[in-house]
Each structure stands twice: as C-alpha cells, then as structure tokens.
C-alpha cells in the first residue's frame, strides 16, 4: 500500500511538471497540484481517523463517525469493514455529511456544537448479531499512504439512544407543581421490542449555588415535579436509556427554562 502510494505520488509529480508551465517543483514528493485551478497544496499522509461508534437504535443500527481530515490530507477516502472474529468481512459505505444521518434534531444540534463543526464521515452498520464481538477497521487512504483504525465491540456495549424530543413544561394550575412531557427519540426504531426508560432532571440556583434533583428511571413520557417554590427559576431536562440499562444514557435534552409564578 505504501509503495503504491509512493508510486502515485511519483506520477503526480511527473504530471505536475509536465502539465504546468511555471513555478512548479517537487520538494520531497510533497507538492501536488490541482491542474485546473493551478493551486498548489501540500499533501500529507492520512492520520488515523478518530472513530466513535454507538447504537442509537438497538439492535438494528450502529453508527460510526469520525471528523473530516484537515485540508492538508485531502483527498482522503475511507475503506470501512467489519467482521466477526475469523468471520466473513462485511463492508459499509462511508459518506461525508454535515447532517445527522438518523432523524433526530438533538443529534444534529450536538454535531453543530462539537469541537470539530461541519462535515463528519458516517458509516451505518446494519444486520448485526446480538452479544457478538465485531472488529471494525476504518482505513484512511490518500496518495501518500494509508492508516487503519481498528476497534472491537459488541453492540450491547455501545448502545446510546438519542435524547427525548419536544420537551414541554407547564405549571399545573393552582399548585406548586410542573408537568413535564416529552416524545421518545425518533431515531429509536422499535419501542415494543426494546422499550426506553427516562429520567428527568431539574435544577435551580439558590444563593449562588446550583442544586439539582434527578427522578427516574420510569417508562412514562410525562412526569409531575412536586414541591417547587414560587418565583424560582427551574431548568428541566430529560434523558433516555435502554430499558435494561444496556450501554449509556442519552445526553440530556436542551434545558427548558421555567419560572414558577409568584403566587
Ligand atoms: C457547546 O458545548 C459546550 C460543552 O458541551 C457548552 O459549554 C457550550 O455552551 C455549547 N455552546 C453552544 C453555542 O451551545
Ligand atoms: C484493514 O483494512 C485495510 C484496507 O482494506 C487492509 O489493508 C488491512 O489489512 C485491514 N487490517 C486488518 C487488521 O484487518
Ligand atoms: C415534535 O414536534 C414537532 C412540531 O410540533 C412535530 O412535528 C413532531 O412530530 C414532534 N415529534 C415527535 C416525536 O412527537
Ligand atoms: C432563565 O430565564 C430567566 C428569565 O427569562 C433568565 O434570567 C435566566 O438567565 C435563564 N436561565 C438560563 C440558565 O437560561
């Protein structure tokens, strides 16, 4: 693979020298050219992709995602395979996107606010066996070389639902209570086969200190918060988790800010 890379670079250099009339040189084989725009860019070998895999839809799908490589490594393409130990190698087809590949607005929001905003690469793995160890191999390839990221997991270990959506909070009339309602994350496929549980967290500030209470887990998609104080501001969030506690809880939903009426 490395030799192949060197060979491609050699021919890129020859091509650059032949096709451009001026100012092109080949230092250490590290200069490539885009003939149409005559823009010179320095190409580097690919770095190992920082791959994160999780199942927002147990047991049907696993998503693997990694950031777009820096400009200096492009064009880079990826070969993504997964297999059982000593088993047949299956391939998934990575594609770059700035949108969440499954229907969940919250997921897209987190993406927009991740440390590397913009495009990420995604690969969707389907038809996985339960309680079975898979080896994932994501190989980054560009004209200067290739590097593989390998990881092992069972789908049960990487379950992580998306947060609930449409969280609303209402004051229950003539009481010091709040009614919180939400909808399950749309990306979770089958609520009959594998139900979700939820937790509700509410926070408030008193004399400069933040306090919080977390309720749950429970199956219902609404909850009454009792014992609140008039005039106080509460921040309410909900998260979801697989019914039997597989994997991780979802992230918390974005906070909803409510002020209790002052009597
Ligand atoms: C982005 O996320 C960080 C940590 O997760 C948080 O502190 C920050 O407020 C967020 N920014 C926006 C614009 O939501
Ligand atoms: C990972 O995939 C690459 C590209 O298909 C392949 O060359 C490499 O041998 C694989 N590595 C392992 C450990 O399977
Ligand atoms: C959330 O609210 C929007 C707008 O009211 C609605 O279109 C959508 O179906 C709701 N999602 C769920 C999962 O209930
Ligand atoms: C909640 O709302 C109140 C009143 O609108 C505002 O003063 C406060 O900063 C908000 N808190 C947060 C954490 O958004």
UniProtKB/TrEMBL annotation:
Q: Which InterPro entries match?
A: FN3_dom (IPR003961), FN3_IL27B_N (IPR056621), FN3_sf (IPR036116), Ig-like_fold (IPR013783), IL11/IL27_subunit_beta (IPR053073)
Instruction: Domain (Fibronectin type-III): give its ranges.
Output: 45-162, 163-263
What SUPFAM superfamilies is this protein classified in?
Answer: Fibronectin type III
Keyword Coiled coil present in the record's keywords: the answer is no
Which Pfam families does UniProt cross-reference here? fn3 (PF00041), FN3_IL27B_N (PF24031)
Q: Which UniProt keywords apply?
A: Signal
Write out the similarity annotation: Belongs to the type I cytokine receptor family. Type 3 subfamily.
Write down what this protein is called. Fibronectin type-III domain-containing protein
């Amino acid at each position: 693979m490395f030799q192949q890379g060197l060979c491609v670079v050699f021919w890129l250099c020859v091509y650059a020298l032949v096709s451009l009339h001026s100012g092109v040189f080949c230092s250490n084989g590290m200069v490539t050219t885009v003939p149409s725009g005559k823009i010179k860019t320095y190409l580097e070998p690919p770095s190992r992709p920082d791959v994160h895999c999780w199942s927002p839809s147990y047991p049907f799908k696993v998503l693997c995602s990694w950031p777009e490589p820096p400009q200096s490594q492009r064009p880079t393409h990826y070969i993504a395979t997964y297999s059982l130990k000593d088993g047949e190698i299956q391939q998934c087809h990575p594609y770059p996107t700035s949108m969440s590949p499954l229907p969940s607005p919250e997921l897209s929001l987190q993406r927009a606010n991740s440390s590397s905003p913009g495009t990420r690469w995604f690969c969707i793995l389907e038809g996985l066996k339960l309680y079975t160890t898979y080896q994932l191999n994501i190989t980054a390839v560009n004209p200067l070389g290739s590097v593989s990221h390998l990881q092992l997991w069972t789908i049960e270990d990487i379950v992580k639902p998306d947060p609930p959506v449409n969280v609303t909070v209402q004051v229950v009339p003539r009481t010091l209570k709040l009614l919180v309602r939400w909808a399950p994350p749309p990306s979770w496929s089958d609520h009959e086969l594998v139900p979700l549980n939820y937790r509700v967290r509410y926070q408030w500030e008193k004399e400069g200190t933040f306090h919080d209470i977390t309720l749950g887990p429970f199956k219902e998609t609404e909850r009454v918060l009792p014992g609140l104080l008039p005039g106080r501001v509460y921040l309410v969030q909900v998260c979801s988790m697989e019914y039997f506690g597989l994997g991780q809880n979802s992230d918390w939903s974005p906070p909803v800010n409510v002020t209790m009426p002052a009597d």
